[in-house]
Every structure is written in C-alpha cells, then in structure tokens.
Amino acid sequence: MSSESDLETWKKLTYIDELPQDIGLFRKLLEQYSRVPPNEIDELLFNTRKKLWEVAMYPCIGRWSFLNLRSMHDHHFLTAFERLKNSTRPGSASGSTDALLDIGCCIGQVLRKLVQDGIEPTRLFGTDLHPEFITIGKELFNDAGNGLTLVAGDMLNPEDKALTELNGKITLVHAANFFHLFKWEEQVKVGTRITRFLQPGTVDAMIFGRQIGTHKPREREGKLGSFLHNQESLQKLWDEIGTTTGTRWRVEVGFNEERQVSIPGFGEEDRYIRFGIYQLPPQ
C-alpha cells in the first residue's frame, strides 16, 4: 500500500469513524476498573484508537473490534475462567496452577476484564508484537504495576529472548484474530513456540479464540498471504505441531454462517470461526 489512494481505500474499508453502540462491557470496565468518569470515556477511546492506528492500521483497530468483550462469554472462555478460579488443577502436578496467556493481546483489554472479574493478575500473561500497544494499554487503564505480565516479542522468531519470560508458565492460551495472519509454516512455528510456554508436566492445555476461517482451506496469495482453516486443516496443522514437539492435540472449530467476511482479500467461502485446541495426554 504505497500510494495515498491505496491508503485511503484501505481506511475506507477497515475504518469506522464513530464509536459502536454495543460496547457497554468496555465502558463498565473503564468505569469500574480504571475509575474513568463516564463523561470522559468517549474522548479517551478516540484518543486511544488514534494512537493505536498510528502504530498499525489493523482492521480490529479501525473497526473498534478491540472494544468488543462479548467473546469472553463463549464456552471456551467460560471453561478457561473456571480453571483460572481454581488454584490447583485436578490431576495436575502438585503445586501447578492454571495461567492464561493472551497472544496478540493488543492493549490487554481481555486481561483487565479477567482481573475485574476476580482472577489473580499474577496468573495472567499477555504478549504482542508491538510494545507501543502495551504502553498504550497501561495508559488507558491507568494500572502500571498491577501484577500482569505483559511482554512485547515476535512469536515467529524462536530466538526472541523477550518471550523466554513466558517459558514454563502457561496452561491456557487465548489467541484472537492471530493465527489467520500467518502462512502454514509460520503457524507451525507459532504453535511450536506455544508448547515451550507450557508448564512442565501439563497434559490438559487449551488454546482457543476466534479468527477468520474458511470452508475451503487455502493459502492466500500475496505479500500478506496466510493460511485459512476449517476443522480438518487445523487438525492437520496441530498434528504436525504435535509430531514436532512430542505433544498431542484435538481440534474443534465452529463456523459463524450468519456473517461473511467483509475485509478486503477474503472470499465467499470465508467465515468467522471460533476454535478450541485441546491437549491430549501422551499415549
């Protein structure tokens, strides 16, 4: 997108000027968690979105999707929440506790909502490619030093030393609008990296989230090419990751048939999906 017209076209297709109406949960989070006066929230959100857009022109920023906390009510998230509420997992090694990593955490809104709902912040972790997003999140929520572990790093770089802070800490992984950004071989790298984050002895890890999928799995062409999955192809991917890492996984995918993907570069077979990737005990 080198020319001005390309940039304007991208903004036209991925940028919404006005705040959405259905962000009541996010407003309540700012009021109750960050103590922001209700009459100051709109201006704060516009300023925050402007800062984020200047870092990266992602559709989830342009369309205000980062304000949507309703996805935390799906059954995968509810399962993760119940596990986080309990300090020791049944059947786990003595003293082992569940901990959640939000990959591509943006401003850390999901993690703050979990803290607001009663989860101990020292058991919550987040990572994003852009350190600016983490800084902007701390400014928005006014909670620097609150116990969350937020790390900026590149999941595609196996030698990124910043991410080693997460090794051996995690049992639950939330990844929204993340895997669909990458090609098959890149997704294998990311999945392999995730297994390094797991607590030693973990046999019941869960990876879950939402993204763009498709009824006809394929590699998208071009500079920003990526691989889109259905259940069968995502299972095949995690079978490959499992072979590489000595782990076993079961995949579940649910399609949202009511909404077609309106972002440029996606077709009629593409749909929004929710997925759960469940670790299986070794054979």
TrEMBL record:
Gene3D superfamilies: Vaccinia Virus protein VP39
Sample GO molecular function, one term: transferase activity
Domain of life: Eukaryota
Lyase among keywords: no
Pathway membership, UniProt: Secondary metabolite biosynthesis
Keyword annotations: S-adenosyl-L-methionine, Transferase
Keyword Hydrolase: no
Residue span, Methyltransferase domain: 101-201
Record family assignment: Belongs to the class I-like SAM-binding methyltransferase superfamily.
The name this protein goes by in its record: Methyltransferase domain-containing protein
